[in-house]
Each structure stands twice: as C-alpha cells, then as structure tokens.
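Wait, can you check?
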Amino acid sequence: MVAYPQPQRMSLEEYKRLDEQSDIHHEYIDGYVYDLAGGTVAHSRIAVNTIAALDQELRSGPCVVFDSDVKVQLSQDRHVYPDIVVSCDVADAKDDVTMLQSPRLIIEVLSVSTEAKDRGIKFACYQEVASVQEYVLIGTIKQSVEVFRRGESEKWTYQRYYAGQTIDFVSIDVQVAMDAIYRRTKIAK
C-alpha cells in the first residue's frame, strides 16, 4: 500500500471513528495515524501472487492467509493493515472476526512511500508481538525478498532471496518460488 507522508496525532477513539467512516484504511501506531491508499499494478500483482501461492499451500491445516483488508491489532495502541498476514490461531479464522490478534507471518510489499516505515517503526512493533515468527519484505524495484525470523532467545535472523530461488517460510512450513511471487510482472531480476 502507498502511505501519505505525514502522520497525524489523534486519540484511539478518534482513530476508530475515522477508520470506520473512511473509504481508505488508516494505521494507528502509538497515537499517530498513517493514511494508506492504493498502490501500483506491480504491488498488487505481487500481493495477489503471494496470497495465491500461500493459500494453495495452506489449504488444509489451521493456518489461513489474509489480505490487506483485515486489520491486525498488535497492542491496544497499535492497529495495522499489513499487505499479507498468516495466522494459525483458529480464533482469527472465524468469519465474523474484524481484527486479527495472533499473526504468525507478516508480509509487506515495499513501495517508495512505505519502505522506511515498514523497515523501521512497523518492524519494531512486530518484534514486540510474541505470535509473530517471521516478517517478510518483498521488493518492487528488483526481485528480492527479505525474511526476518524470530529465533531462540528472541533473536532475529535475516535471510535474503533472489530471482530463481525458493523462499522458505519456516513459521508455516511452506516454500514458494520467487517466480511465483513475481509472475506476470516486469520487475527486473
């Protein structure tokens, strides 16, 4: 998703009213509201491709993949709309749920306007959520996928994948080829 550059300060109650009444999504992090708007065709293709590949692999079992229409509550004062989320908590998979509580895998498709926030404040917030086991950044300038994994003693490891490789989503025991993620895009290898 593309974000507008300047976050605005508001209370949690004001944010909830704004997000319910607006046609666009808003993220709320520690008293600041970030407006989100539509992205590029490449951003959309990557998200759709990734969701399709994950959904295909997760057909049976407790884990379910969600798109950016589902809000994730990281804490009382942190509400975000990641591009892709996988939860393996059966409570998150109920049809009437409006906000996920236990994300296991979070994926952001990078854009120029969101990259700093995705790498900075959002990653810091995700690290504080015990259920989050992997955080993934997918490039839109060139074919590159970065995976941050929670390890023993709460240490995070880093692995980068390039064109032609297969991404190992350890937290959900799924492998996806880079070619599947970038299918029908013209993003350089």
